[in-house]
Design brief:
single chain; mainly alpha; about 0% strand
Length: about 425
């Protein structure tokens, strides 16, 4: 082959290589949040099969979910503080190792207590997911890209909810529900291997809170802005948890979907969640460039999102599976907007010092609300009161909006003064 006929070697421009390297750690956090939701959603997907085999009722199932939420409530602020103080490298190795063992241990559970213990430990370990994702995005991405970075890191959760039915259903049908949980443990080990290479990025070295900042810098105080943020995140995000854990029971009991059918359709609602994260992340970044979502300007989008969440209450009135799935899709899309908008607006002010802690407080507040709500939803499902359960979930974002509007709007995080 001579010089005239030889094809030139394709050279990737340095700027493009740097761009890919900038986003690689955040993309790894997408895989982490994906893994966390495969681990937690496996139980929701297999709930009917597990309850039939173990004799658990819907209320007991609700208490099992509540145990996860309690562990998650403790784990989020705990790991948020740990990651801010000591960094994401070793912190995520510890957290993912804990939850991987807990996820695999579900395969050996037979009683309410055993499931509850496994779920509580799983929830505690998974508490590092979103603090780790937010801290990684803020340490490795420029300010103008952080809304999209946070959305990308968090979007693995919705992607995991999409993937779980596709991945877990064939495994469960072939090897049983216990085999499905053993496979989730294998996935956790695979992520840990990947992280050993990605975590070598020098931008991920050290804590988020330096010695000087931790001693002399401003501290994060639980003032009105933080409480308002936690309310918006928790109540606005409740439909995500409700649809994730409650939809399989409703579709199975009220609409006659068997395990195989659930595996074919339950990827549809989380797709709205996935699109919502990416869409609202883009909206927040676009608005941040124009400085239109600061302080009181957040009232209009939050209010609109709260109103758009209300149609979820109509789901039990629909008898066509396609219509119900479409409504669940839309509900998760809207709920994702609450999570991303509240989180991005708050961490934009303090991400350099308290990013993981703020993320932990938001996810912890959501988890605490879910811990209280799921047994109630389970009891309503046992009674066939689907209308009441869906109505509570639909109104929840409106409650979050009113609390945020009353206590958090326009206040600087950690202070009681308007910006």
């Amino acid at each position: 082959m001579n010089a005239e006929t030889a094809r030139p070697t394709k050279v990737v421009p340095p700027a493009r290589r740097r761009y890919a390297a900038d986003w690689l750690p955040t993309a790894t956090m997408t895989l982490l949040s994906l893994l966390s939701y495969v681990d937690r959603n496996a139980l929701a997907l297999l709930a009917n099969t597990i309850r039939d085999e173990t004799g658990l009722n819907a209320e007991q199932y609700g208490w099992i979910i509540s145990a996860f939420s309690a562990g998650y409530l403790i784990g989020n602020p705990f790991w948020g503080r740990v990651l801010d103080r000591f960094g994401v490298r070793a912190g995520l190795v510890a957290a993912v190792s804990i939850w991987t063992l807990a996820s695999a241990s579900h395969a050996f559970a037979t009683t309410l207590l055993a499931f509850a213990m496994a779920r509580a430990i799983l929830g505690f370990g998974e508490g590092a997911t979103f603090p780790g994702g937010l801290l990684t995005a803020t340490k490795t991405l420029a300010l103008h890209a952080r809304g999209r970075g946070i959305a990308l890191a968090y979007s693995g959760a919705s992607l995991g909810a999409i993937v779980t039915p596709i991945l877990v259903t064939p495994i469960a049908l072939r090897w049983g529900w216990r085999g499905a949980f053993l496979c989730t443990g294998v996935l956790g080990v695979a992520w840990l291997v990947l992280w050993t290479f990605v975590a070598r990025d020098p931008r991920l070295r050290g804590p988020a809170v330096t010695q000087a900042i931790s001693l002399n810098g401003p501290r994060l105080r639980l003032g009105p802005a933080v409480w308002g943020f936690m309310a918006a995140y928790a109540f606005g995000g409740l439909p995500i948890g409700f649809v994730t854990y409650g939809a399989p029971i409703h579709l199975g009991r009220a609409l006659g979907c068997d395990q195989a059918t659930l595996g074919r359709v339950l990827w549809i609602p989380p797709l709205g969640w996935e699109i919502g994260y990416l869409f609202w992340g883009w909206v927040v970044d676009r608005a941040a460039r124009r400085r239109t979502l600061a302080g009181h300007a957040f009232a209009r989008p939050f209010g609109l999102l709260a109103v758009l969440a209300l149609p979820l209450a109509a789901a039990p009135l629909l008898h066509a599976r396609a219509a119900v799935l479409a409504l669940l899709f839309f509900a998760m899309f809207i709920s994702a907007g609450f999570v991303i908008a509240s989180l991005s607006e708050t961490t934009r002010r303090h991400a350099g010092m308290h990013g993981a802690t703020i993320a932990g407080l938001g996810a912890g507040a959501w988890s605490g609300l879910m811990a209280l709500a799921m047994p109630v939803f389970g009891r309503l499902f046992d009674r066939g009161a689907y209308g009441a359960a869906y109505a509570i979930a639909a109104v929840s974002p409106l409650v979050g909006y009113f609390v945020w509007d009353a206590f958090g709007r326009g206040l600087a995080v950690g202070s009681g003064e308007p910006q």
